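<instruction>
Derive structure tokens from the sequence
<data>
Labelled lines for chain and fold:
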Amino acid sequence: MSLGDEIRGHLPFLRRYARALTGSQQHGDNFVHTLLEVVVAAPEEFSSNRGTRIGLYRAFHRIWESAFIDEGGGDDEEDALVRAANRRLARITPLGRQILLLTALEGFSIEEAALITGTDDATVATLLDEAVADLDRESRTSALIIEDEPLIALELEQIVEALGHSVAGIAATHADAVAAFEKTEAGLVLADIQLADGSSGIDAVQEILGVAPVPVIFITAFPERLLTGNRVEPTFLISKPFRENTVRAAISQSLLFTPELAA
């Protein structure tokens, strides 16, 4: 199998990671595009002796680290919420933020995260604890859950409440979701893609975002169908079946981009 074929299978999930790390589809995809240009220009320098996936994320880490040092909080053309979130993220080291996502969102072990970031296991464990503690101190909000499976909706409700947030409502269809959002002050939306009556969670979210710019976390059994890079796609995307730590990390990250918290 060629290097290109090996990398291709990991790209949807690298896009997911890059978007969560930057809080933006555009910026995340730009980082991935830069990485691919680097690999194409010098494939002999791409090290995958620990496996292609770890090698890919390790190369991405070097690009992200360099960009963060050079650019800091971004330029004047960057989205206002992204700029505000970056100011708040100054409380968390870039490395700590990255380790949080590598372990909780991407499922890497502490040892693998250390290999990717060029640190040691003890440093990764310490930064992970600090990042989780910092994010758990963020202001609380209420969440609208759009999910047609009652047991999954209940599990999400328990996760949200365990983090100290409240649940504004649970909806199983597009129409119910929009109506529920308009009646509440939800600051976060957790949305499935395929809903009970055959309607689309994406359509429901697009209508909701026309009312207020709240962060959204999509939950689906087929993330690779959405992470193609060809159209508007979610920044925060969780695969089913999900792990509690994954949802927790996504909620904490997404809340960095709310207008209320960004002020």
